[in-house]
Write a structure and sequence with these properties.
alpha+beta, eight-stranded mixed sheet, 5 helices, about 30% helix, about 35% strand
């Protein structure tokens, strides 16, 4: 399991049983669900499956805490074709938006993946209308590699256009 990562008032805490209620409630928040590809509703059994994937090193998931208060989720998984490529996603409670928390959290997690997991590339996909998320990634040094049309399949089968952002060791 990945370790706890701390930086002044912000901590990335490995997912565990104590966060089940927080995670399920956040996953079912209508504002979050609008941008996240989860089943609706997201149920407790799915949380157990997520814990299992994390324990098998198939997914790295952290709860983002500020001064001990859980505010969001950050996750990265190795991409099937290459264990050195990680793809991630993130959510933050709406009342915590605009404070730079996600920028700090992604920077902390990226450093961990490069140094501790031998990552060579970290990537994230963002829908064209999600400008705040694009800005967060750009502040973290990610580059927009282009628009992928009808690329990302949702749980309902719909194909979405997404921008591919990546951060690489090569620059």
């Amino acid at each position: 399991m990945e370790r706890r990562i701390e930086n002044d008032t912000l901590a990335l805490v490995p997912l565990g049983p104590k966060y089940e209620q927080f995670y399920v409630e956040l996953a079912n928040d209508p504002v979050i669900r609008e941008r996240v590809n989860n089943s609706i509703p997201y149920v407790r059994e799915q949380y157990g499956e997520l814990l299992d994937r994390q324990s098998q090193k198939k997914q790295y998931v952290w709860i983002i805490e500020e001064n001990g208060v859980p505010l969001g989720v950050l996750n990265f998984s190795p991409v099937r074709h290459s264990p050195q490529v990680f793809q991630g996603g993130y959510w933050l409670k709406p009342e915590a938006w605009g404070r730079g928390l996600m920028t700090r959290a992604i920077s902390m997690a990226s450093e961990y993946l490069f140094l501790s997991c031998e990552a060579k590339r970290i990537q994230a996909m963002v829908e064209p209308g999600n400008v705040p998320s694009m800005r967060v990634l750009e502040k973290c040094g990610f580059r927009n590699e282009g628009l992928l049309r009808s690329y990302f399949q949702t749980k309902t089968g719909k194909l979405l256009d997404v921008h591919m952002y990546a951060l690489t060791l090569a620059g």
